[in-house]
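2.7 Reproducibility. Because tokenized structures are sensitive to small changes in the input, we list the exact sequence used for Sorting nexin-17, including any N-terminal residues retained from the expression construct. No trimming or masking was applied before prediction.
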Amino acid sequence: MHFSIPETEVRSGENGSNYVAYNIHVNGVLHCRVRYSQLLGLHEQIKKEYGSNVVPAFPPKKIFTLTPAEVEQRREQLEKYMQAVRQDPLLGASEMFNSFLRKAQQETQQIPTEDVALDICLSNGQKVTVNILTSDQTEDVLDAVATKLDLPDDLVGYFSLFLVREGVDGGLTFVRKLQEFELPYVSITSLRSSEFHILLRKSYWDMAYDGDVMDNRVGLNLLYAQTVSDIERGWILVNKDQHRQLKSLQEKGSKKEFIHLGQTLKYYGYIKFDPCITDFPEKGCQVIVSAGNNELNFHVKLPNEQMKEGSFKVTRMRCWRVTSSQVPIANGTTNPCSSAKCEVKLELAFEYLMSKDRLQWVTITSQQAIMMSICLQSMVDELMVKKSGGSIKKMLRKRHNGSIHRTESQQAVKSPPLLDSPDPNREQIVKLSTKLSSVSLRGISASNSANDISGNDFHGNYAFEGIGDDDL
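Resulting structure tokens (single pass, no recycling of outputs):
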């Protein structure tokens, strides 16, 4: 997650006096407004619980009223503080930190705690309505959905809730995976748009775990609905013969066999992102990125209109980072701009082992850059837990943000050619009818309003716990 405090505002308190509010954004969207005193209170609690040697530096109190320059300085310092706490595997995953953010989110949106009905979408378009409290966190809502569907407790962790946006053409844009520091009802309500939905989808990548899910009737139906949906959307590619086989299995109601055939198809289990821009193999190329099978797949349109396809394996990525910057909206200036005249530009860049002893940075400019980073992180988490002999069930159920370093035995593996011409024999399947849903590499996320990406992790920067140069 990308935390930033891009702006402040002067607000009026209950006693009529003015105070400075610091607007905390997550992934470029306002999450909450807090006062300095609230953050100071959080700092004191964390320091009491974890000790002064663990907690990052906090900007000091001032005796006199702050000048505009001092307010800006404090904003930058508080932003660095929030990013430092969030990146710490102990502090960032703590209930103390997450509950503070949940309470602040609810207070900011001025939504009282009360009983409400919340719609959760399944992959086939159906909705499950759950009765929750507005103050229920993500895990509570997921548990409520599982109870409503009669999904066993030991399978709940195989699924997650995602915030998605549905386009007028039915296209689906994944915004983010809902986190433990937010309240799903408040998050979806604050967007004030019917385009946004909360979607239930499997949260693992290795299809070997499909077997665990398919052993249960509800799990089988959810996985089947997701597979059918991904095929209909063109996320999974099939040819005519495969289409006939799938259609036949569907007509017979052979859901397991349908999924088993789906597992053999290209892009099974991938998340497909909206068209964006990359600098590989050259600057300004249009690209469609998909995440799955421990890789980022590129479908690139070169300047000469030629189409190329290739993959970047997560095991060959030394590190990655997400950067954000404020970009003027057609005002013809390069001056710092107000939020009303700026938009947030997001980029995901990763350093890739192209060949022996040759590393190269590859950059993707996309509003879904943070979601791509989350996908990479979860792939590495899953790979490393599996390699260490740990329980994938336990990892999924905890949905933690912990960190487990990559060992020397996990070396970069050989990757296929980066860009090949796409297979002309594959085509999208026609719509199938249905009625029925921590290990870590260093991924540095930087908030950079000055348009220069410095080596300092904290000029508005946020760094995930990760590996060093010797780990590759």
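The two ends are 24 Å apart (CA to CA).
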